[in-house]
Design a protein that fits this description.
heterodimer, A: seven-stranded mixed sheet, B: 109 residues, six-stranded mixed sheet, globular
């Protein structure tokens, strides 16, 4: 199993530009999570999906952030327009469908730098 | 609201035992996770406690007291590769995790 796949691994962009982060969950997992990690705030949940449906997006900082999951094998997190304070590592994680299985499996992350 | 407290940094000697404490206050509780995260890498699962008591898994053990809102991670026979951040996370809902800011452990020779 390839694990959770994220792309790109690193992204450097200028303020005001649109940024799209991509995630492919582990096959067969039905829950997908987007997190943001910074030194100051740690690992924060932005949004999660169950069966491709957004369940809780209360962690999305503002309207500049949006996430989609068009099918079970792909999700995107978009920031438009980007700002320097969005600089962070963004992790995607997935969770299997098994009853009682709470463990989340994390991807390698995308390190975003907004200049 | 949600809140998790754990020490920011700890240092321990190779071969020793270290205990990393975590206290939590969350609205709803479906278990307590510990994750390990090496610098520049993704968090990886270490343990999950939903009932009170101690769960042992090799050199690592995790303890939970639901009535006290308290957990700890115990690492025995420390190795240099155990230098990492250790993240405590509660589960306020059935699906989502709420993470603490993590404890950075440095193992010295």
């Amino acid at each position: 199993d390839a694990g959770v796949i994220q792309s790109p691994r690193h992204e450097v962009t200028e303020m005001g530009q649109e940024v799209t982060l991509r995630c492919k969950p582990i096959s067969g997992h039905n829950s997908l999570f987007w997190y943001r990690q910074t030194m100051m705030r740690g690992l924060e949940l932005l949004i999660y999906f169950n069966n491709n449906v957004p369940i809780d997006d209360s962690g999305m900082p503002e309207d500049r952030f949006s996430a989609k999951m068009p099918n079970a094998s792909f999700s995107t997190l978009k920031i438009q327009p980007s700002e320097p304070r969005d600089s962070a590592v963004y992790f995607c994680a997935s969770r299997p469908r098994l009853a009682g299985a709470n463990e989340q499996f994390f991807g390698p992350g995308t390190r975003l730098t907004v200049l | 609201g949600q809140n998790i407290d754990q020490p920011t940094e700890m240092t321990a000697t190779e071969g020793a035992i270290v205990q990393i404490n975590c206290t939590y206050q969350t609205s709803g509780f479906n278990g307590l996770f510990w994750y390990q995260q090496h610098a520049g890498e993704a968090p990886t699962f270490l343990s999950y406690n939903v009932l009170d008591g101690l769960e042992e898994k090799g050199r690592f053990s995790s303890f939970l007291s639901r009535s006290k809102g308290y957990s700890y991670l115990l690492l025995k026979e420390l190795q240099m590769k155990d230098s990492a951040s250790y993240l405590c996370a509660s589960t306020p809902g059935a699906n989502n995790l709420f993470f603490g800011t993590g404890t950075r452990l440095t193992v010295i020779p």
